[in-house]
């Protein structure tokens, strides 16, 4: 497996990218979006599995991983700015009609992006169009001098992992908790909590793949089904539930996601 | 219910002690954890992660931190045994957090694990979801 890291300035932010060794002249180019508080290494598994077929990019959102924060050490805290930044990434990489895939907050934002920008297709993992799930006091205390975000959120992440997740992947997910930045996580979960694009889901016309780890108590099957019911104008909607895997699906089981994504992209 | 609480305290000090103290940082906790099940309340007093006293009701000094729920709430909790999940706004039959939010967040993992073990004890004693006299 060959993964290449590089920096590119996007909207004035020094942004860290990684890409696999996939074919540059392939039919589809994929941009991968990480979960809240984390960074692009979540896609190393899929990079390897799909490197013979697809050129794939992932990047650290501003203030995540090795990317710089916004000026004044600010973070992105609303989904519109988040989605617009992702599209600026696609433009910076000069990718026309990118395939945008994301998990959790990334699985949400693909819907906003598809509503507002000319994507080739989207894959939503553990995403929905309305996620008002987190108590306000938890959000407030995420960035408090007397609360360690890295420690107080152990159970928060742990409970989202599916029962069949391999230990190595589980360890990586929990290592991610230990690496989180409090203000960054607060910004992510604030925009996640305020995410509501239900009223404009009919603007989505591109093909949509939904791969859902159903052992996820935060993003439920009901939420996903309600979201898909509002995809009334999408060219195609494919739903692939994955039993016994949970919220960090791209890390927990990259094989099954890669298989579904390849099958989906081959068919469009 | 008192039997379940006493068994909970015993496990926190023995078979579950390492997980409570180290994985979930319970060794840093000194204070009271109150569990309410319907109208029954019990308080476990801990010193550096060890249960040193159990009493019925809430402490005279007031609730430090804790969790409350009706039978249906604890029954739902038993399905996932995650306090995070059970307090998310999308769930019906949520458990309620007691005490100060700041102290709760500081000790959330330990409290969540205490609730998990409590739920396991209730299941093993066949009292989960049932009203039991104290």
Automatic annotation (TrEMBL), chain A:
Q: Which part of the chain is the AB hydrolase-1 domain?
A: 29-118
Kindly give the Gene3D superfamilies that the UniProt entry links to this protein.
alpha/beta hydrolase
The UniProt keyword set, sorted, is: Hydrolase
Which Pfam families would you find in this protein's record? Abhydrolase_1
| MF annotations from Gene Ontology | hydrolase activity
InterPro entries cross-referenced by the UniProt entry: AB_hydrolase_1, AB_hydrolase_fold, AB_hydrolase_sf
Which PANTHER family would you find in this protein's record? AB HYDROLASE SUPERFAMILY PROTEIN YCLE, MONOACYLGLYCEROL LIPASE
Q: What is this protein called?
A: AB hydrolase-1 domain-containing protein
Species of origin reads: Rhodobium orientis
């Amino acid at each position: 497996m060959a993964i290449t890291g590089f920096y590119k300035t996007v909207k004035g932010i020094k942004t860290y990218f990684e890409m696999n060794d996939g074919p540059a002249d392939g039919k589809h180019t994929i941009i991968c979006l990480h979960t809240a508080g984390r960074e692009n290494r979540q896609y190393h598994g899929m990079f390897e599995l799909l490197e013979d077929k697809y050129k794939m990019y992932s990047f650290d959102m501003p203030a995540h991983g090795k990317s710089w924060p916004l000026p004044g050490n600010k973070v992105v805290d609303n989904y519109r700015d988040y989605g617009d930044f992702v599209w600026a990434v696609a433009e910076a990489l000069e990718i026309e009609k990118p395939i945008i895939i994301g998990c959790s907050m990334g699985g949400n934002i693909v819907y906003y992006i598809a509503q507002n920008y000319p994507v080739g297709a989207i894959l939503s993992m553990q995403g929905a169009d309305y996620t008002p799930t987190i108590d306000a006091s938890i959000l407030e205390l995420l960035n408090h001098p007397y609360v360690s975000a890295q420690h107080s959120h152990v159970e928060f992440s742990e409970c989202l992992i599916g029962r069949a997740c391999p230990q190595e992947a589980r360890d990586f997910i929990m290592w991610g908790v230990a690496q989180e930045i409090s203000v960054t996580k607060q910004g992510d979960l604030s925009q996640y909590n305020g995410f509501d694009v239900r009223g404009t889901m009919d603007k989505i016309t591109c093909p949509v793949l939904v791969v859902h780890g159903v052992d996820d108590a935060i993003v439920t099957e009901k939420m996903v089904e309600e979201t898909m019911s509002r995809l009334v104008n999408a060219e195609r909607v494919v739903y692939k539930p994955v039993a016994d895997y949970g919220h960090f699906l791209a890390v927990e089981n990259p094989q099954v996601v890669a298989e579904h994504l390849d099958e989906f992209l081959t068919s469009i | 219910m008192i039997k379940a609480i006493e068994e909970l305290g015993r496990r926190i000090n023995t078979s579950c002690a390492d997980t409570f103290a180290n994985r979930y940082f319970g060794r840093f906790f000194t204070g009271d954890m109150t569990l309410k099940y319907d109208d029954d309340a019990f308080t476990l007093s801990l010193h550096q992660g060890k249960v040193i006293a159990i009493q019925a009701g809430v402490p005279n000094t007031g609730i430090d931190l804790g969790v409350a729920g009706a039978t249906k709430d604890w029954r739902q909790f038993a399905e996932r045994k995650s306090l995070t999940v059970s307090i998310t706004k999308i769930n019906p039959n949520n458990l309620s957090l007691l005490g100060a939010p700041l102290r709760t967040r500081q000790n959330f993992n330990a409290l969540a694990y205490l609730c998990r073990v409590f739920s396991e004890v209730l299941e093993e004693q066949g009292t989960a979801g049932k009203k039991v006299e104290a």
